[in-house]
Amino acid sequence: MNHEPSERTTIKRIPERSSYDKDTVQSILTEGMVAHVGLTTNTGVVVIPMTYGFDETNLYIHGSPASRLLKESNNNHICATITILDGLVLARSLFHHSMNYRSLVVMGEAEKIEETDQKEYALDLIVENLIPGRVENTRSNSEKEIKSTLVLKLPINEASAKIRLGPPVDDDEDHLLDTWAGVLPLKISFGKPEPDPLLRNGIEIPEHVSALIQQ
Which of 33, 74, 78, 195 is most buried (CB neighbours < 10 A)? Predict the structure, then answer.
Protein backbone atom coordinates (compact mmCIF):
# COMPACT_ATOMS: atom_id res chain seq x y z
CA MET A 1 0.00 0.00 0.00
CA ASN A 2 1.34 3.45 -0.92
CA HIS A 3 1.49 6.41 1.43
CA GLU A 4 -1.22 8.88 0.46
CA PRO A 5 0.36 12.34 0.52
CA SER A 6 -1.04 14.85 2.97
CA GLU A 7 -1.07 18.58 2.35
CA ARG A 8 2.28 19.02 4.08
CA THR A 9 4.00 16.00 2.54
CA THR A 10 2.87 16.67 -1.04
CA ILE A 11 5.94 17.66 -3.06
CA LYS A 12 5.18 20.78 -5.03
CA ARG A 13 8.59 21.67 -6.51
CA ILE A 14 9.52 19.29 -9.35
CA PRO A 15 6.72 16.87 -8.39
CA GLU A 16 7.85 14.36 -11.03
CA ARG A 17 10.71 13.48 -8.68
CA SER A 18 8.31 12.59 -5.87
CA SER A 19 7.31 9.13 -4.72
CA TYR A 20 4.83 7.95 -2.12
CA ASP A 21 5.35 4.28 -2.91
CA LYS A 22 5.80 2.10 0.16
CA ASP A 23 8.62 0.09 -1.40
CA THR A 24 10.53 3.28 -2.21
CA VAL A 25 10.03 4.58 1.33
CA GLN A 26 11.23 1.30 2.83
CA SER A 27 14.27 1.12 0.53
CA ILE A 28 15.47 4.57 1.60
CA LEU A 29 14.96 3.68 5.26
CA THR A 30 16.93 0.47 4.71
CA GLU A 31 19.92 2.15 3.08
CA GLY A 32 19.94 5.26 5.25
CA MET A 33 21.82 5.40 8.53
CA VAL A 34 21.05 8.80 10.07
CA ALA A 35 17.78 10.68 10.45
CA HIS A 36 17.79 14.41 11.09
CA VAL A 37 14.93 14.84 13.53
CA GLY A 38 13.36 18.28 13.89
CA LEU A 39 10.86 19.68 16.34
CA THR A 40 9.75 22.96 17.78
CA THR A 41 10.69 23.58 21.43
CA ASN A 42 10.04 26.41 23.84
CA THR A 43 13.35 27.96 22.80
CA GLY A 44 12.98 27.46 19.04
CA VAL A 45 13.41 24.89 16.30
CA VAL A 46 15.87 22.05 16.98
CA VAL A 47 17.21 19.49 14.48
CA ILE A 48 19.24 16.56 15.84
CA PRO A 49 20.96 13.77 13.85
CA MET A 50 19.99 10.36 15.23
CA THR A 51 20.26 6.69 14.35
CA TYR A 52 16.95 4.98 13.81
CA GLY A 53 15.19 1.69 13.32
CA PHE A 54 11.98 0.90 11.48
CA ASP A 55 9.45 -1.69 10.49
CA GLU A 56 6.60 -1.54 7.98
CA THR A 57 4.56 0.88 10.05
CA ASN A 58 6.82 2.86 12.39
CA LEU A 59 10.11 4.73 12.65
CA TYR A 60 11.92 4.37 16.00
CA ILE A 61 14.44 6.72 17.62
CA HIS A 62 16.04 6.60 21.05
CA GLY A 63 18.18 8.58 23.44
CA SER A 64 18.94 9.52 27.01
CA PRO A 65 16.10 10.45 29.37
CA ALA A 66 17.90 13.80 29.68
CA SER A 67 17.51 14.45 25.94
CA ARG A 68 15.47 17.56 25.25
CA LEU A 69 14.22 15.99 22.02
CA LEU A 70 12.74 12.99 23.76
CA LYS A 71 11.38 14.90 26.75
CA GLU A 72 9.64 17.52 24.63
CA SER A 73 8.51 15.31 21.75
CA ASN A 74 5.96 13.10 23.47
CA ASN A 75 2.61 13.86 21.87
CA ASN A 76 4.28 16.53 19.73
CA HIS A 77 4.71 16.60 16.01
CA ILE A 78 8.21 15.91 14.72
CA CYS A 79 9.80 15.61 11.30
CA ALA A 80 12.46 13.04 10.41
CA THR A 81 14.53 13.39 7.24
CA ILE A 82 16.81 10.73 5.73
CA THR A 83 19.06 11.57 2.77
CA ILE A 84 21.24 9.31 0.64
CA LEU A 85 23.66 11.20 -1.59
CA ASP A 86 24.36 9.24 -4.78
CA GLY A 87 26.49 11.66 -6.76
CA LEU A 88 27.57 15.19 -7.60
CA VAL A 89 26.17 16.49 -10.87
CA LEU A 90 28.61 18.75 -12.71
CA ALA A 91 26.97 20.89 -15.36
CA ARG A 92 28.37 23.20 -18.03
CA SER A 93 27.09 26.18 -16.07
CA LEU A 94 27.38 26.83 -12.34
CA PHE A 95 23.63 27.41 -12.19
CA HIS A 96 22.76 23.85 -13.22
CA HIS A 97 25.15 22.01 -10.87
CA SER A 98 23.17 19.60 -8.72
CA MET A 99 23.22 16.34 -6.80
CA ASN A 100 21.76 12.91 -7.38
CA TYR A 101 20.00 11.84 -4.21
CA ARG A 102 17.22 9.90 -2.56
CA SER A 103 15.54 11.66 0.33
CA LEU A 104 12.66 10.84 2.62
CA VAL A 105 10.58 13.01 4.93
CA VAL A 106 8.37 11.47 7.62
CA MET A 107 6.08 13.71 9.65
CA GLY A 108 3.78 12.84 12.50
CA GLU A 109 3.07 12.71 16.19
CA ALA A 110 5.70 10.93 18.23
CA GLU A 111 4.66 8.52 20.96
CA LYS A 112 6.81 7.45 23.88
CA ILE A 113 7.06 3.66 24.22
CA GLU A 114 6.57 2.45 27.79
CA GLU A 115 6.35 -1.35 27.49
CA THR A 116 9.69 -3.09 28.07
CA ASP A 117 9.23 -5.68 25.32
CA GLN A 118 8.28 -3.01 22.77
CA LYS A 119 11.27 -0.88 23.77
CA GLU A 120 13.58 -3.87 23.38
CA TYR A 121 12.05 -4.60 19.97
CA ALA A 122 12.65 -1.00 18.84
CA LEU A 123 16.21 -0.87 20.19
CA ASP A 124 17.04 -4.10 18.36
CA LEU A 125 15.71 -2.62 15.12
CA ILE A 126 17.93 0.44 15.53
CA VAL A 127 21.07 -1.73 15.79
CA GLU A 128 19.95 -4.04 12.99
CA ASN A 129 19.41 -1.12 10.62
CA LEU A 130 23.08 -0.17 11.01
CA ILE A 131 24.61 -3.65 11.28
CA PRO A 132 22.39 -6.49 10.06
CA GLY A 133 22.97 -9.63 12.12
CA ARG A 134 24.49 -7.80 15.10
CA VAL A 135 21.62 -8.41 17.52
CA GLU A 136 21.86 -12.18 17.13
CA ASN A 137 25.60 -12.10 17.84
CA THR A 138 25.71 -9.65 20.76
CA ARG A 139 24.63 -9.57 24.40
CA SER A 140 21.05 -8.40 24.68
CA ASN A 141 20.07 -5.21 26.48
CA SER A 142 19.56 -5.77 30.19
CA GLU A 143 16.31 -4.74 31.85
CA LYS A 144 18.18 -1.89 33.56
CA GLU A 145 19.56 -0.66 30.23
CA ILE A 146 16.14 -0.77 28.62
CA LYS A 147 14.54 1.14 31.48
CA SER A 148 17.23 3.83 31.32
CA THR A 149 16.56 4.50 27.62
CA LEU A 150 13.71 6.53 26.19
CA VAL A 151 12.28 5.38 22.87
CA LEU A 152 9.93 7.22 20.52
CA LYS A 153 7.69 5.70 17.86
CA LEU A 154 6.77 7.77 14.81
CA PRO A 155 4.10 6.26 12.52
CA ILE A 156 5.13 6.15 8.85
CA ASN A 157 1.80 7.55 7.70
CA GLU A 158 2.82 10.92 6.32
CA ALA A 159 5.87 10.12 4.22
CA SER A 160 7.19 11.42 0.93
CA ALA A 161 10.33 10.57 -1.01
CA LYS A 162 12.11 12.72 -3.56
CA ILE A 163 14.67 11.34 -5.98
CA ARG A 164 17.01 12.87 -8.54
CA LEU A 165 18.87 10.61 -10.97
CA GLY A 166 20.80 11.06 -14.16
CA PRO A 167 23.09 13.56 -15.91
CA PRO A 168 23.07 17.36 -15.73
CA VAL A 169 20.26 19.30 -17.36
CA ASP A 170 22.05 22.07 -19.25
CA ASP A 171 20.67 24.81 -21.44
CA ASP A 172 20.87 23.84 -25.11
CA GLU A 173 23.32 26.61 -25.98
CA ASP A 174 25.69 25.48 -23.21
CA HIS A 175 26.19 22.10 -24.92
CA LEU A 176 28.63 23.89 -27.24
CA LEU A 177 30.93 24.92 -24.36
CA ASP A 178 34.29 23.17 -23.88
CA THR A 179 33.40 22.34 -20.30
CA TRP A 180 33.43 18.80 -18.89
CA ALA A 181 30.04 17.76 -17.57
CA GLY A 182 28.80 14.57 -15.97
CA VAL A 183 28.24 12.81 -12.67
CA LEU A 184 30.71 11.93 -9.90
CA PRO A 185 29.10 8.90 -8.18
CA LEU A 186 29.26 8.68 -4.38
CA LYS A 187 28.90 5.66 -2.16
CA ILE A 188 29.49 4.98 1.53
CA SER A 189 31.87 2.07 2.03
CA PHE A 190 33.31 0.40 5.10
CA GLY A 191 37.06 0.29 5.68
CA LYS A 192 39.18 -2.37 7.35
CA PRO A 193 37.86 -3.24 10.82
CA GLU A 194 39.94 -1.94 13.74
CA PRO A 195 39.77 -4.42 16.65
CA ASP A 196 39.22 -3.12 20.16
CA PRO A 197 42.64 -3.08 21.93
CA LEU A 198 40.99 -5.01 24.78
CA LEU A 199 39.66 -7.74 22.47
CA ARG A 200 40.67 -11.21 23.68
CA ASN A 201 43.00 -13.20 21.45
CA GLY A 202 41.39 -15.63 19.05
CA ILE A 203 38.17 -13.68 18.44
CA GLU A 204 37.81 -13.38 14.68
CA ILE A 205 35.84 -10.85 12.69
CA PRO A 206 32.26 -12.23 12.59
CA GLU A 207 30.51 -13.03 9.36
CA HIS A 208 27.93 -10.25 9.71
CA VAL A 209 30.76 -7.68 9.92
CA SER A 210 32.65 -9.21 7.00
CA ALA A 211 29.48 -9.02 4.93
CA LEU A 212 29.42 -5.23 5.37
CA ILE A 213 33.02 -4.88 4.27
CA GLN A 214 32.38 -6.83 1.09
CA GLN A 215 29.49 -4.64 -0.04
Answer: 78
